[in-house]
Amino acid sequence: MRLGRIASPDGVAFVSIEDETAREIAEHPFGNPTFTGRQWPLADVRLLAPILASKVVCMGKNYAAHAAEMGGEPPETPVIFIKPNTSIIGPGLPIQLPASASEVHHEGELAIVIGRPCKDVPASRAAEVILGYTIGNDVSARDHQRADGQWTRAKGHDTFCPLGPWIVTDLDPADLAIRTEVNGEVKQSSRTSLLLHDVGAIVEWVSAVMTLLPGDVILTGTPEGVGPIVDGDTVSVTIEGIGTLSNPVVRKAK
Asked: I want to staple 94 with a disulfide (CB 3.0 to 4.6 A). Which of 19, 45, 224, 250 is the partner?
């Protein structure tokens, strides 16, 4: 099943997307969703970020080749950080480059969406708490990262967490192709089988630290090939079995 959020002529709604039709879900998409009976052609609605997370937890240096390109060794244990939920935007909305940042990079990633409250989840049971998977872009201001010595400002700007276009619930994340293009030129190309810590291990590690709530998002890490995005670019992240998340890039006015 593909789950999403849309802006329709009748307002914002959670939907199931099938055969280019968006069917409205009553209340929320968790558990066994029920439907209101309203539906719209997908072409007549605007896709929003598919979920409103209470928090976005991110994995740092979870591909060996990316750790190497950043000048370090892969960490022995997972490294996590948080992006604020105010950084989330949906497909087609602009990534706004802050006036104070001169070096902003794309980071295409597989995103886990949590389906129920959970804590201390063993890796073997991670699938039980996952609603599905979507695409994320962990946009990062490298100059802020270097200046601060930590990542909160660099990765926390408004618009620095594009998500979408929808959540796929029936997906095996073990070995999916992931590709990032800037203006049609491939910049990142890898597979999720190269994750140093797989989805089960990620959920176990994060849930040992903090309670996860329905709709929370975990970005699983980015492969090698990160690089700059500038005003006028379009960034597109494609993951096998999910689709493509595209966003234009604009320079934020001072």
From this structure: 250
